[in-house]
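Internal ticket - ligand job 685, MU-OXO-diiron:
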Amino acid sequence: MSKATFDPTLYNKSNNEPFSQVLDKHLSRRHFVKSGLGLGAMTAFAGMGLTACGSDNSATPKPVEPTIPVPPSKSSAKLNFTSVPGARLDAVVVPEGYSAQVLAPWGTPLNSKAAPWKADGSNSADDQANAVGMHHDGMHFFPLNNAANDGLLCINHEYIDEMALHPNGPTVDATSKLRTLVDEVRKEINAHGVTVVRIKLVNNQWEVVTNDNYNRRFTGASVFDIAGPLAYSPLLETRYSPDGSQARGTLNNCGNGYTPWGTYLTCEENWPEYFVNRGTLSRDQARIGISKTTTRYGWDDLAGQDEERLDEFGRFDITPKGVSALDDYRNEANGHGYIVEIDPYNPTSRAVKRTALGRFRHEGCTFGKLTEGKPVVFYSGHDARFEYIYKFVSAAVWDAKDANSSNRLQTGNKYMDEGTLYVAKFNENGGGVWLPLTLNSQTTDGKTLGDSFATLGELIINTAGAADLVGATPMDRPEWCAVDPFTGSVYLTLTNNSKRTEANPANPRLKNNFGHIIRWDEGDKDTEFSWDIFVFGSPSDGNADTNLSGLTDINQFASPDGLAFDKRGILWVQTDNSAKEVADKTNDQMLAIVPSTLVDAQQKPLPVRQNNQMELKRFFVGPNDCEVTGFAISPDYTSMFANIQHPANWPYSSNAAEATPTGQVIRPRSATVIIRKLDGKEVAV
Ligand code: FEO
Ligand code: CA
Ligand code: CA
Ligand code: CA
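stdout (structure tokens):
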């Protein structure tokens, strides 16, 4: 299900200039704010400790000859597969010479506490707490013992399909329409969150290792620590956590990230819908879109039920009811909307919500190219129409030794709890400004954010509201972000925005139904960047005003969403399309391109256009009605993992490419698909 039903335009009431108005007239002109040094040389110098360049040390550092090799600024990867045709099947499609295997579909037991998955939907809440969750989304592969055939797969579970989860959908009282079954609601809560599962390659097939000590679930009921500016804040105090140190549950885990120190990042996206305030919405609740009437699945219907434990259902009703926050759950939603750090290698560790990275509908979280002695940067988009792109710059500077830290969550404390959050403003000349979100930051009306927020914690609770005040650029639904390992350029999917009503020479589609991918390079200062548009989604038969990248049958796509680089410099683009013009021709898909090789004679980066569009190739097509999302790859590049979310009538067997027979109806299961070459060599090249 795409989120076409959710209209965030209701919430962004700022008058910031829409992105459509600031797009440069020239589709690909990019103003480089970097001065002098090429990126490769900069990295080499910084690696030698010339970090005073970025400090306020007034002595000009003398450039010295690099003694370490300058890393290549261009990938040597060449895509070596034939683009697959569009398809509309209850099966996946892969290039000739490849296989596709289903792994860890929803309901797969992680341990023997869970009964095997039952095709009639009758598994219990306890089964679900010990089995793979529903609606797979972002994921990452963490190798064990540096092996390429043994590791931990972390999988996000974004939301649920109640019709598939239960034998006959949700049970409600005939008159009141309220939920009635405790176990059913617990099962729904347990189907959310994250799965950590050990997998091994045995005889060319990946297997789930049942009962492995690393296997674990995080659900909508798990306990998380709060870190960063909101740890122990009065804004987090609830009847359950009177000191504001903990929050229960992670919900709507969509995109993901990982850290340079070996932890997983899961991103809380459309969490506001799970809560209701039947009283008066606070400023931040109104801005982010908390409902005054309903919750997404009616979990709060069972508040006060005899079997309820520790207010497990009542907490979703955040209407103030008691004398103070310690008596009710008015602050429960304040524990949601964050980047959450999980250490998959330590199965007894508690996961941590990193509040310094802002609170909004986080799609993903991606770190920028690392430089020793420089801060670590994380990017995250707020996926809703007319919302913003953010980056977090750590206060601590990168020490490469931390990549091998044995206390990974403590390393997370070092790089993710203190720093500065910025929001992007795109200017017309191909330049852009990162606007800091601090209490001292200037607002567009000549005040400071400190005039609107008493503390940094209060600002973070209403991150999007603060971004409104400083004049950030409203975007067309920012989704995933990916960083080119060769150039450091940052790519971000803007999936679509059907509410765009103004024509613009640079983005001339009246409705941006097909989406595009923007990219930028950081400047010398933390506050500067330069940008262009890498590719526009479109049907191949779109007219010249629509098909701005000259896409053809081999690569037409719409609504780019999942996005990832592998370390070979291949960019993988996944779609979550609701535009009929492309959906009539192909199901959702995954495409590949090597952006760093798309350069002109002067080695300047080029966008995808008619004369080079053939470099963008379709690698994979998913089954009917699914979304293709989440990307991982084994360290030897021989196994690629992608998730199939909310398919209609799939999978029929463990062979993902085997179609469900015509006329046969099966209970659909989101699942991971593993794509391998029949000869066992690296995929895609
Ligand atoms: Fe969950 Fe923005 O996709
Ligand atoms: Ca989705
Ligand atoms: Ca998504
Ligand atoms: Ca999407």
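Auto-summary: Residues 224 and 350 are 6 Å apart (CA to CA). The chain has one domain: 19-57+77-677.
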